Amino acid sequence: MYAYIKGEIADLSEDNLVLECNNIGYNIRIPLSVAQRLPGIGAFVKIYTYTSVREDAFQLFGFLSKDDLEIYKKLIAVNGIGPPKGRSVFCRQ
Fold first, then answer.
1. Percentages helix, strand, coil for the chain, rounded to the nearest 5?
2. Which of 10, 43, 61, 82, by CA, is between 20 and 30 Å from 19?
3. All domains of the chain, ordered by start, with CATH?
């Protein structure tokens, strides 16, 4: 749905990013490896996103590069690994 979102980091934790773009705060789930490489709150970044839509949830998962996003998509294509689990095992230095 969204290829990427470019904006200001409004909030950041080890598994979640709130990215403000045009006065909208996007809640984006991120792997720990992404959180460790992000600049601090107030910095501007471009986050490549994967949109997961399920009956009970609508979630965005974010990565710092197109290559990382493509690796993640291949990872979650494996039977038994969905978007949340794929995020937790994704590690890219």
1. 25, 40, 35
2. 82
3. 4-89 (2.40.50.140)
Give Cα 66 distance to the centre of its chain. Answer: 11
pLDDT in tens, 30-81: 998 899 999 999 999 999 999 988 888 899 999 999 998 988 888 888 877 7
- pTM confidence score: 0.85
DSSP 3-state of 65: coil
* Secondary structure class of 7 (helix, strand, coil): strand
Token readout for 34 is 């992404």
Residues 6+ apart with CB under 8 A from 33: 90, 91, 92, 93
Cβ-based neighbours of 86, under 8 Å, separated by 6 or more: 61, 72, 75, 76
